[in-house]
Amino acid sequence: MKIATYNVNSVNARLPVLLRWLAETQPDVACLQELKAPQEKFPVGALREAGYHAIWHGQKAWNGVAILGRSGEPVETGRGLAGDPDDAHSRYLEGQVGAVRVGCLYLPNGNPAPGPKFDYKLRWLERFTARASELVSLSDPVVLAGDYNVLPEELDVYNPAGWEADALFRPESREAYRRLLAQGWTDALRHLNPDKKIFTFWDYTSAAWRRNAGLRIDHLLLNPAATQRLKAAGVDRDVRGWEKTSDHAPTWIELRDGSQGTAS
To answer: Which residues make up the annotated site Important for catalytic activity (predicted)?
Structure first.
């Protein structure tokens, strides 16, 4: 099973890019973030014609997450996070796709930091970590996929010294990410590429794509049951170079059928 995460940066504006990527790579599950579309404007018809069923949590102008499935419609198991009844942002959606539980997330950016937006980011991370603690020990595979807006290590940023004050790289964000992993989650892309500089995002400005001035902020975290099935992980880097594309590239994993051991 191939599971991908892709911040599309407006699902309707980037629909041709999304459909092309789906046709060329055919992931079994695709988690989308930053839909920037209200619930009724999600392109469910176009995706159905492309062979994908979907559940989605839209929001006008900003945010929004969706889970696409090729083998059938994902069964929704959660929408939003507990702990803040006043949080109306569409940032978390959870569903069962076959034998795999999938959480799709769009974690707050948090800039400028310090400040109210950074405080919201850290509170959101706490709430997400609480939900993750309920999922990590499930006997079935669980994958938490999305735009985490966190740079876990210096290896994940093209110029660490220039990002020390940014909310994505601040010690509080990185420590919260480490606490999440400590529950028993595996960062799939880093697990299979422990020493490799891999990016998933390149800003539209300052010729970042041409200079390969990138960041790794799109992650797929696996519980132990999923880690045992991990076969491969990668980034569809070329998609970032397509015309009218997102500033993110799709990031993916492949899971073996059944428990056949972890890839090395």
So the answer is: 218
